[in-house]
Amino acid sequence: MTLDFRLRRLPDTLFNLPYNRLLLVVLAFAALMILTGIGLRSPWPADEPRFAEVAREMVASGQWLLPMRGGELYPDKPPVFMWAIAFFYWLTGNLKIAFLLPNALCSLLTLGLVFDLGTRLWNQRTGAIAALLLMVAPQFLIQAQRAQIDAMVACWIMVACYGLIRHFFVQPSWRWYFVAWAFMGLGIITKGVGFLPALLFIPILALKLQDTSRFQGTLRWRCALGPLVMLAVVAAWLVPMVLAVSHLGTDEALAYRDNILFKQTGERYADSWGHIQPWYYYVVSVIPSLWFPLPLLFLALLRPIREILKHRLDVVVLLAWVVLVVAFFSLSPGKRGVYVLPALPALALSLAPALSGQNPARWFGAVISVLHLLLGAALIILGVLAWNDHPRLVEKVADYTQDPARLHEAGTLLFTLGFIWVASLMAFWRCRALGRWFIALMVSWLVFTTWGYRILEPLRTPRNVLAAAEQFVPAGGQIGMIDFREQFILFSKRDFTHFSFFSSLEQEDRNAWVWMKKTPDSYLIVADRHALSCFTTDGAKSIGTAHRDTYVLLSDQDMTDSCEPPDKVTRFTTENPGKWLD
Q: Which residue ranges does UniProt annotate as crossing the membrane (predicted)?
């Protein structure tokens, strides 16, 4: 019996396992994919160093209610995600493990809920297919191993959707109904958009208006109590925060309250100041790539999906909700690909019953096979170009390092990944195209989260810049930074001073001059692209490249004779933030 034959028989063998055993197999496989690599890398920009530093400061200071970034109040997000990282840091003492654990565990919970809901709505074969479809979409695994808030809020949203769908479509369960609203509240104090499951009521009420006999035991007056549960959970954070801010009474504390309650919610949605994209951004750029191959599979299953929609209201509601969520984020001018992650589990659930009972259209297998080959060939070609120092690749890598050996290492990784894709296509040619794609993707992910992390780690942290700076700074000296980035605080083994994230470059420049004038043995790290009025950079020491910038180190020898005083003296010093590295 060949390996190819066994692999073709494997799905049927697994789907016939008892429920608990199949769930264990699915979660064990997912845990292998999601947990592999945790502890092998540090927090990487853009968002990870920020959240890790906030969590580190919570543990170091013992003050968890008001998040601090480099000693300054951090108002961009509510603290739930940072609390989770801080908890695991406090528990393990290892920040490299702690910062990735919350999303890893949340993603496993999301996957388990998808499996269970698919089983309850249809059967365990469909539940398992839904879970595997979720895993094959790149965005799910990527976010499961990133310390961004979105995987956690997607988990809370999935719990809420699970509760509502179970109440309305499996069997009436007021306990699950109110649990759903509680997790919407938790989602709101994690990242504002936790209320999205409430959009399920739009298709549910529309179906009720079409036929008043629907939802007889589930859509009752008690439903109106759900938002009160949500507000109670929000109040559990909101009330102590407002009281703490009122007690402090400082301008900074009041600005924190107003920023997090108003600017980071309604204003950010309606009048975004960053990540501006056209309304069709998600449909054209994000979903086709980060959710691949699910959009293609939807088209290949269009006929059976149409039949299912005629008699399965749960699929109608799930698909309608996916459309509503994508539309909700599309209406905001500010867009990031991760925003639509909460809709991905619902799409996987919607496709699973059609795939469970029908084969995709014939063209689907051909397209997937061609893309499989092209992707493998492209990776191999990129690897060869990297070995041969192609100018475009050299230029790209130069944004992160001046060491040409790094490009050659990356080339070997790319060549290996390409070989995996081509070899899997040939070895499992008799298997279904989607199965081959799944195998290649999972093996590639394991290679990337081990070998790939080792290659990328020196390129995604500022350790080289800080190490070079520390060679010039005497024992007991302090390091400051103009236009600081959180990763520089997180990795600094010296006391680190910055001049407020919310200050203009001009005000930071002036405050840095005042600080250096009053602080002996003080040095400034600054990107060489900045034009400063209070310092000259002609004699500055170059300390390397990181994060697409080249940095120099300024001392008191680089100060101008005089400098305009800042509008307000502002500086924040963090003592030995890099202690966690020891």
A: 21-40, 73-91, 151-170, 176-207, 228-249, 279-301, 313-331, 337-356, 363-387, 407-429, 436-456
CB proximity list for 566: less than 8 A, separation 6 or greater: 507, 510, 511, 514
CA distance 68 to 55: 8
- Rounded mean pLDDT of 221-226? 95
* CA-CA-CA-CA dihedral for 380, 381, 385, 390, to nearest 10: -140
Average pLDDT of the segment spanning 325-344: 95
Question: Model's pTM, two decimal places?
Answer: 0.95
Rounded alpha-carbon distances, angstroms, from residue 10 to 42, 61, 305, 354? 37, 52, 25, 20
CA nearest to 329, candidates 392, 398, 391, 280 = 280
Specify whether the CB–CB gap between 345 and 157 falls below 8 A: no
* 417, HSE (Cβ side, Cα atoms, 13 Å): 25
d(CA 457, CA 25): 32
Q: Which of 531, 527, 528, 537 is nearest to 559 (CA)?
A: 537
Encode pLDDT of 192-201 as tens digits.
Answer: 899 999 999 9
Backbone phi, psi, residue 78, to 5°: -60, 165
Cβ contact 326:346 at 8 Å: no
